[in-house]
Amino acid sequence: MFILNGSSPVPLYTQLYNQIRExxxxxxxxxxxxxxxxxxxxxxxxxxxxxxxxxYQELYAEGYIYSRPRSGYFVSALEQEAAPRALSGxxxxxxxxxxxxxxxxxxxxxxxxxxxSFPAELWRKCFIxxxxxxxxxxxxxxxxxGDWGLRSAxxxxxxxxxxxxxxx
Length: 168
Prior knowledge:
There is one protein chain. This protein has 168 residues and is mostly helical. Among the domains are: 12-79, Orthogonal Bundle (Arc Repressor Mutant, subunit A), CATH 1.10.10; 117-162, no CATH class. It has five helices and two strands. It has helices at 12-26, 38-45, 49-61, 120-138, 148-162; strands at 65-68, 72-75. Strands 1-2 form a two-stranded antiparallel ribbon. Helix 1 crosses helix 3 and helix 2 packs across helix 3 (49-61).
């Protein structure tokens, strides 16, 4: 059914993946066909179970196969559009991806922030309030063990979630 070439520079699991994928896309492995178990396929190919498992996991991740608990792997029903079409010798106009749209609804560039999207006035008020409240602590070194409030929060979390009795 499948042939692996140990002298090929292509990894064995990739060879197996490519062969199974090709059979699925060509229809030689129809939907709902049960694939051999990892162990049986490894014995049949004289390969390690890791090789077969790697190929199956890649096929699973890409949606070519699915797993039924305690039943094994089965070929997924693929939409006709999921199978790539064979390209002719020369690329045509439709073979290229379209370019980026001429305008964007949102600008996600991190250096360009729209002035109305950031609450600058609220930020300024909170910043000034923080400076007014904590002005003495800002010019002093903090506790070497870290912020007391943070240590207390971690201590109470550890007691509550893990049952660890500790000091902040």
